[in-house]
C-alpha cells in the first residue's frame, strides 16, 4: 500500500487499485460553491447541459488575477471589471445619468446610443487597448 500525502488542511481520500497494489491518495477536498445559471439563448450547445457545465467549470480556472480556481467563470469577473472601470472613459462634461434605472426603459423612453458614444471620449493608449488593460 502506498500513501501519498498533500500539505493541506482538508483532505479527501481516494483509493485506486493497480494490479495487486492499492494506492490511497489524499488530496485537497475542494470547497464547492454551487452556482445557478439561466440559459437565455443557446446557439452553440443545443441544450447540452453537460457541455455547458464543463465549459463553465473550465472557465473558472482561467482567471488571470488568481492562481487558483475562482467560484464563477472568468468572463463574468472580466465583465464586472470592465463595467466598474467604464466610468473612467466617460467624459466628465457629459450629462449621462448613471444608476439602476438606466438599464430599464419604459415604453415612452428611448435609449440614445449616439449620446453614449459621444460621451465615451477617453480611449486607452494604443499600446494597451488591444490587451486586458482593465485588470
Automatic annotation (TrEMBL):
It holds the Pfam family Piwi. InterPro entries: Piwi, RNaseH-like_sf, RNaseH_sf. It comes from Panaeolus cyanescens. Residues 34-91 form the Piwi domain. It comes from the Eukaryota. This is Piwi domain-containing protein. One of its GO terms (molecular function) is nucleic acid binding. SUPFAM superfamilies: Ribonuclease H-like.
Amino acid at each position: 500500500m502506498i500513501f501519498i500525502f498533500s500539505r493541506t488542511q482538508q483532505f479527501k481520500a481516494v483509493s485506486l487499485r493497480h494490479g495487486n497494489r492499492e494506492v490511497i491518495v489524499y488530496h485537497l477536498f475542494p470547497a464547492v460553491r454551487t452556482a445557478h445559471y439561466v440559459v437565455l439563448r443557446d446557439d452553440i450547445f443545443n441544450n447540452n447541459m453537460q457541455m455547458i457545465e464543463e465549459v463553465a467549470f473550465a472557465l473558472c480556472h482561467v482567471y488571470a488575477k488568481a492562481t487558483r480556481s475562482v467560484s464563477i467563470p472568468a468572463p463574468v469577473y472580466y465583465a464586472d471589471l470592465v463595467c466598474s472601470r467604464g466610468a473612467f472613459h466617460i467624459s466628465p462634461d457629459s450629462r449621462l445619468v448613471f444608476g439602476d434605472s438606466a438599464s430599464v426603459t419604459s415604453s415612452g423612453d428611448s435609449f440614445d446610443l449616439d449620446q453614449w458614444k459621444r460621451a465615451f471620449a477617453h480611449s486607452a493608449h494604443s499600446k494597451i487597448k488591444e490587451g486586458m488593460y482593465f485588470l
